[in-house]
Every structure is written in C-alpha cells, then in structure tokens.
Design brief:
single chain; 475 residues; alpha+beta; Cathepsin B, Chain A; 4 domains; five-stranded mixed beta sheet; 15 helices; zinc; ubl conjugation pathway
Length: 475
C-alpha cells in the first residue's frame, strides 16, 4: 500500500484531484457520508499528509511519517484479503485502488484521476480462411511475460549453471556474489505481448468448425500513464508459487508506437456472424457429456452427482469433473436430480483464490472459469489454465466484439513515447512473503520510498522492478 500510494501521488491526476484542487475543509464539507468512511475524504487527507511537507521535516525523535489507518480501513473494507494483515500483491492493490476511486467518482471524468491510466486493448484473430474478428476491452495495466530465452547473457548463464552443478556435487553452495541471473530486455517482453500466438479450438463461423487461429494483440489507445507488470510470480514444483530470479533491462525512454492497433484494415474480411459461433451454440440448459458421466459412475459415484460434475466443469474432461466432485461430496443436494432451471446456480468463487490467480497474470474471467472447473483449488486451477489455452484466448467469432463501456469514451490517447517515472520492487521469494519498496523520479533525481524511510537512491536497482510506471512524453 505504501509503495503504490507513493507512486500514485507522484502523478499529476492524483495530485491535482486530491491536493491542488481539494482542500481538507472542502473535502469534509462535501462528504456525503461519515467522513471516516468516505474514500474521497480519506484520499484527500492522505494526499495532504504526503504532499504538504508538514510531516516530512525531521524532529528530535526522528522522521515519523504518517500512519494512514483510516485510509486503510476504508480502502480495504470490502476486500477479504486487504482487510487482513497478510502479505498481498502490489498489482492487486493497484487494481483495487483504481476500481474504488472510480466508484467514488462516478460519471465525472474531470474529477476521476484514473482516466489517464486507462487504455483500450484490441485483439485480432485470423482463422485459416483468412477472415478475421476483432475484440476490444479496457484495462489499466499490461501484464508482460518474461521470455527467458531472450536473455542477453546466455554464455554467462551457461557457465554459471555448469559451475553451480559442479559445486552441488561437491556439497558446496554458490555465494550471492557469484550468482548470475538472466538479463531480459524490456523490448523482448513487449514483443512477446504483441506477437502472434496460436488459439487452439477456435470456432470459425467461416469454416463452421473448430480450428487453430492466430491472435495478435495491440493497443487501440495509449494512456497518459502506462503501467507494466512483469510476470515474475509463477507456479514452481509442487504447485508452490515462486518468483523468477531475473533482471529486466529497462530503458529510461520507450516508444511503443509500433504496438498501436488500427482496427479493420482495407481488404480484410470479417468472420460472418452466426448462431453457431462461440457460446451461442450452447442450449439454454447445459447438457452433461455422457462419456464423462459414465466413467465417473463406473467408479461408483451417484449418477446425478456425476451429471452435475460434468456440467459444472463445462464438460472440460474427466479429471476436472472428478476434482469438482471430490470437493462437493458434502453438498446436501449432490445426489439429487438436476433442477430443470435454464441455468445452474453459479458456484461461489473464493475472492482470495481469485486474486491469487490474477496476481499470476491470468485474466479475471479465465481465473473464475479455472476455479469453478477445479472446485476452487488454486493448484488445479493453475494447471487448468495452462492445459486450456483456448480459454484465455476465447474471442467471440462474431465479426467484431466491443466490450468497451460508454464511460470509457473519455479515455485519453496520444503519442506512444514514454519516460520511466517510477517502479515498485518486491524483495522476497513469493507473493506470500517479502517487502515492497518504490523508486520515484522526483525533481530530477531518483528517490527510494521504503514505508516511512525516504532517501536519495544511490545505486538505482532499475532492473529489479515488478511494476513499472511510465509517463507519456508530450510532443
């Protein structure tokens, strides 16, 4: 929370909204509810505490800083994880903060400081027929995979691994000074995001069959502030979340103009619309796959329970149905006949498990599908995502799908040239432990913000960031 809020209150939209154009008295006067429960009031209070300079002067007792207990209480009130004292993910908090601030400033785009962080992503899918479909959605950060095979120090890495293997045989440990980590350029991470990828099991309305399509992704708009998340947290052996030990070479200035997507191009033919595309072929009431049901029934499970397992995992397969069944054996109606309602009731998804998957970089809707298919188990849900790549690329085969809301029509756009203005780093081995610090470019010099400790950064660890914040360079 400390790292993210320091960065956000170093951006012009948040400084202007909650400090320059909002006094404490005015915020208190217009508070529509109890000021202690009003997010805009607490944001203003926090902004004045951080930006006024009143709490930055050192005293005889030392620089104490501020303790934003009311702000934490308000921002975390409806979140089961942030309301606890457990270790959380900085990206989750950033995303949660944006959502809450937008809810606190509905319909007023001039007051909403989050507008400058939002942008439109456009996905283009081309099937073997040559026809294409486009899908748009809005987001406020980009998650970038780290292509380790693009490391620029491969020879040093190979030599290090040979040395480490030899030392392991001798029962010796490599010192921290001897460790060689992969160095991957940020350009390679951006190229991995926008490069083409295969979409298996894509239903083409042009071919009236499932096929493998090619998906490319670009940005329809470029935001004032671009937030990049490096996907450093992955699932290791035994399905234990671990952190990639890697350096990212990040330049001070980047140009992503080549990542702009310009929509349907002259000569392109859109995939035809049809009732057979996507989920439109599904009947109003889901039907269980009899092969899955019979295999489960042969094991000894109740027939009706087997039907529910197949339906609630979208007929994904025997293993997924078995996992669901084992986690729902205590349901009071598990062995009762299936209701004739058009759609089954939605399983309740554990918010903490959902946010854990999102922190791995999986889309929220795909994470929900995975948790539902795996009975809420994070390890099996992660495996489900990797074994169902078509889920994360599930683009409707309609000619064009636009999931951008009317409120998003005020999204800013401009040049694709950016300068690095801040980054948040994680020190630790996984999302469940460690510490976050922020480095921010202030008045021409880099400053480290470590909770209530603030100092000039001597040896800038720019290659160790987890979240990078870029500001557009005005033309």
């Amino acid at each position: 929370m400390a790292s993210v809020m320091q960065v956000m209150f170093s951006t012009h939209p948040f400084i202007s909204r909650y400090f320059e154009k909002q006094s404490l008295k005015a915020a208190f006067a217009i508070s529509q509810a109890d000021p202690t429960l009003d997010l805009n009031m607490q944001m203003t209070k926090l902004a004045h505490g951080m930006l006024s300079g009143k709490y930055s002067a050192p005293s005889q007792e030392g620089q104490e800083g501020i303790r934003p207990r009311m702000f934490k209480s308000v921002i975390a009130a409806s979140h089961p994880e942030f309301s606890s004292m457990r270790q959380q993910d900085a990206l989750e908090f950033y995303h949660h903060l944006i959502d809450k601030v937008e809810q606190a400033n509905p319909g007023n785009h001039e007051l909403n400081p989050c507008t400058g962080f939002k942008f439109i992503i456009e996905e283009r899918v081309q099937c073997p027929s040559g026809k294409v479909s486009y899908n748009q959605h809005c987001d406020n950060f980009l998650t970038l995979s780290i292509p380790l095979h693009e490391a620029t120090n491969k020879e040093q890495l190979e030599a290090f691994h040979e040395k480490k293997a030899a030392m392991d045989l001798d029962g010796k440990e490599v010192s921290k000074e001897e460790i060689v980590r992969p160095r991957v350029p940020l350009e390679a991470c951006l190229a991995s995001f926008s490069g083409g990828e295969e979409v298996p099991e894509f239903y083409s309305t042009a071919l009236n069959s499932k096929t493998t399509a090619i998906k490319t992704t670009g940005l329809k708009t470029f935001p004032d502030y671009l937030v990049l998340q490096m996907r450093k947290f992955v699932m290791g052996e035994g399905w234990v979340p671990k952190k990639l030990d890697v350096y990212i070479d990040v330049p001070d200035i980047i140009d992503i103009s080549h990542m702009r997507s310009n929509g349907v191009q002259p000569g392109e033919e859109l995939l035809p619309e049809g009732a057979s595309c996507g989920n439109k072929a599904e009947p109003a009431r889901p039907v269980a796959d009899e092969d899955i049901v019979s295999q489960l029934a042969n094991i000894g499970f109740n027939y009706f329970a087997c039907q529910k397992a197949a339906i609630n995992t979208s007929n994904a397969g025997l293993e997924e149905a078995m996992n669901w069944l084992l986690s729902h054996t205590q349901d009071p109606d598990i062995n009762e006949p299936i209701s004739q309602d058009p759609m089954p009731a939605e399983d309740t998804i554990d918010e903490a498990s959902l946010q854990t998957l999102v922190s791995f970089g999986f889309p929220e809707d795909v994470s929900r599908m995975a948790l539902k298919a795996s009975g809420g188990n994070i390890e099996r849900a992660t495996e489900w995502v990797f074994s169902h790549p078509e889920a994360s690329s599930s683009v409707s085969a309609d000619s064009s799908t636009n999931n951008v809301k009317d409120d998003d029509s005020h999204i800013s756009d401009g040049s694709g040239r950016y300068k690095l203005m801040a980054f948040v780093s994680h020190m630790g081995t996984s999302t469940h432990c460690g510490h976050y610090v922020a480095h921010i470019l202030k008045d021409g010099r880099w400053t480290i913000f470590n909770d209530n400790k603030v100092a000039a950064s001597v040896d800038l660890p720019k290659d160790m960031g987890y979240l990078y914040f870029f500001q557009r360079i005005s033309s």
